[in-house]
Amino acid sequence: MDGSGLMDSLLRGAAEAVKLYLLPGSLPLLLIAITLALVWWYWRPTAARSIRAALTALVVSYWLLATPWVAGLLQNALAAGFEPIREPVEVQALVVLGGGADVLRAGGRSLSLLSDASALRALEAARVFELVEPAWVIVSGGPGRDPRQADSVPLRAALIELGVPAEVLVLDTSSRDTHDQAVQLQTLLAERGVERFVLVTSPSHMRRSMLAFQAVGLDPVASSAETDSRDPSRAPPSQLVPSMDALQGSVEALREVLGLIYYWGRGWL
Fold it and tell me: Do residues 49 and 144 share a domain?
């Protein structure tokens, strides 16, 4: 491996470590912060006042991030300017980006389950397919939580179940991240003579996706998926009452903010 390849691997590894352990609002970061505070307390008992202040700030931060109000502010800031398309547009293809999947294995069998993000993207892609009737639907997403299966595989199955013909579906199973998706899709689209296409992904992910695609010379039409299932029974009782759904929304938004900073630093935007 040459120097540039080693540096790329190190940077990707560092980014993956941040996603796994250091995302603001995540459980791993909470546990790490509490552990460090306890170590600090045992090492410096006289610093009790500073430790109390740090833990108070931590609790307040997590409380705020867990409120639908803060989660909505973060997600809306990222999604501003991007909406689902409502009228037909002249395109040759539709591209939908995978948003994760779980693979359960037992008794020699396996079952793939789409994440909420992937499922909502599939629903939006199926709607857009009926609206614009593209010649191709490209499903992009490499190995995720299970390295033995690309995220695009169960997403393709969901699109077929939603009425998209199997013969128009094309898989990209090698992309590791949004930058890879932009690079891989540049080739897949050129091979099929596609000059204009609709891009479907989550609202908070759309800004980074559009910038990454534009950086490689592509200019998609954005169509954002829904943020949630719009199930009235899941509506929060108050915008200031913490919930796990809101905390997860804040974590996803902050992950995108960090992703934008990382992509900017790598020159991928």
Answer: no
